[in-house]
Write a structure and sequence with these properties.
756 residues, alpha/beta, Rossmann fold, 4 domains, six-stranded mixed sheet, four-stranded antiparallel sheet, elongated
Length: 756
Amino acid sequence: MITKINKLKNFGIFQNFAWNGLDNFKKKNLIYGWNYSGKTTLSKLFQNLEFKDKDKYFPGSEFDFTTEKDNKSSNYSYNNLEIFPYNVKVFNINYIKRIFTFDEPNSDIQPISFYLGDPSGELDKKIKNLDKRKAQLENIRDNRYQKVIDEFDNYNKANGKFSIKAKEIRENYLDNKLDQNKLNKAVIQQITDNVKNDLSKHILPDTDRDKTKADAIAENTFDTQKEDFSFSENLEILAEEVKNILENTAPKSISFPELDKDKVLFDWVQTGMKLHEEETDCKFCTKTLPENRISDLNSYYSKKLQEIQTAIANTQEKIKSEIGKLKIIFPDKKNLGKSFQSDHQKAIDNYNETVKKYKTQLTVLDNDLKRKTYDYFNNTPVTEIELITFKEDFEEIKKSVKAHNDWLAEFDENKKLALSKILNHYIAEYLQTEDYNKKETTKDQALIIITNINSKTSINKADKLKLETQLRDNVKGQEELNDILEILLHRNDIRIEISNDKFILERSGHPANNLSEGEKSAIAFAYFLTELKSLRNDEPPKLPNTIVFIDDPISSLDSNHIFQVRSLLQHFFNTANEDYLQLFISTHNFEFFSVMYDSGIFNKTQKEVNRPLYFIKRNKLTSSTIEKLPKMFSKHKSEYVGLFHIIKEFNDLETKEDFPHLLILPNALRRFLELYTLMKYPTELEVDKRVSEVFNPNDKPYYGTKLLHWFSHQNQFEKIQQHDDKILQVEDAIKDLMEYIENKDELHWKGLNEVN
């Protein structure tokens, strides 16, 4: 059953309704609301469910509701009404109009009519006509539509069109690279099912077609190539070493200007010193060496100088080694797939350009070291260099090689995908040429027609038995309709009779014309109850899965009919097994509301969460909401007493801004005044005329009618929104009326207060 309406958006007067914690609907629900509040609009929501048509009423609206079955909740919305699991039957003004559409052509609603038996041989004639029609339909089926199906079936039969096309593709398009097991009529049928819904999507441009075909029949002749070629770049480290060497200086305790000025002599003497250790004569000129000459030279060529020389030599060797690392043998582009060769060669060319720049910087460092050998004793200026890196070059080389390797690793899969793609192309192209989709649509239509023909030609004894059973049920339905009508109308002059296979309405034995609105309501309601009873008596019964919504069944009936309608509803719904899924009854008539609440159908409880009573309230001109019915209404037997207590409760409050029923006060006051003056002065005069008769000009309520006219039923909510000062006047009008009754109608005041 439906437990709550989560959302109603742009659904008539329900512009933006949300459930917002309202107690869940019960199995049996009684809804009260004044005219124009939205009761019938709510019943139209249930009619959208009944016909599973989201746009039947208020197209473009949105609604969402929750159902519960076996303690499991489910949600349904306007977008999935077709899967709504319950039957719905709605009685409202639209149902009444639908019943009386006898002469409306092409109506999607059936008027009151039933097929009858065969008292005059009509049924026998119908059966013979059906047999004749059956022969005609079979002829049409076999000689027209079955031929369409047979022609279409030629695609997939043995040695049919698909077999021929498979052979053509194998031999002429794919160079016999596929055997029959991989491309036959079954495979083409499978491909057809995949591509037929969008043929143009699978048909390739000529260039893509040729490349895809090449990939599909390609053979693998490549090997996996090495991807990583990076090395440790030491340019920055070498630059730092060279800088330290250039900034380093050797101490010079003794001066030898000749050696300072001549590097060749400087190197020659330094080398010769090792030959003259412990010697007194020069081995070159044989002359005696000056005293302390070797000692002085040792001081000149200090240990620090030798360290600098060693550092220079070592760093020069490192530079030479760094240059050697740059000679890398990359994979030849011919060893890569054709589609990767261009990117690979470009990456190598970029690497070689970077090598030139890198070597240039190394040469700068080597030249700085050479400059240092000309002056060990002073700080040598450092030449700035550009730090070059191969990171991006190696990434691009790796990227091109990896792309080749990935392609190679996925060669079989890519070939498979290419084969699928080219086959999709060939089949889509073929289907387009064949106009296959149109032929299939024609075939499907033929199948549907044949199915319909077969259904229509299934006339047999079971059908005749069904018609005979229907005769008995319909006659019984006629009797039940007339019984209900007599109860509702208090007379039996209007009856439903059977003529020409239909129910017809008669008044005193003649066709009934000019039915009153009340008579139409009574007939429609009788028909509605008879429909519900037929659902109860179906085999299997359908009523247990049916939600029933009855909106104001007495709207066009006078007050004398309230108890008849109550009796009919009580008899139908107040059953021991409650064999219906859910019941909603809505009304604007408080007396009918009260007698229905006392009917025994609805659960009477003081516990708020279990009260099955709801109130539709119009908040403003274009907006209504659903709330729990205020207890003031359900605790009193009459609308008059309930209205009195709402007004009095407001009048007794110190702070009135938070009164929960503030927006309905003008209508409540107007209605109460109508009933009060009508009780005091029973007449058909308008309320303002009765006010002038009941009150004296000195009585304050005498002047309240103008204000109440301001809050007429159709515009009161708009007025509230536009004129807050009128609300203050309503407060004064209530105070004046309460004081009047309390002081000048004391017995009445006492009686109203004693009814709790």
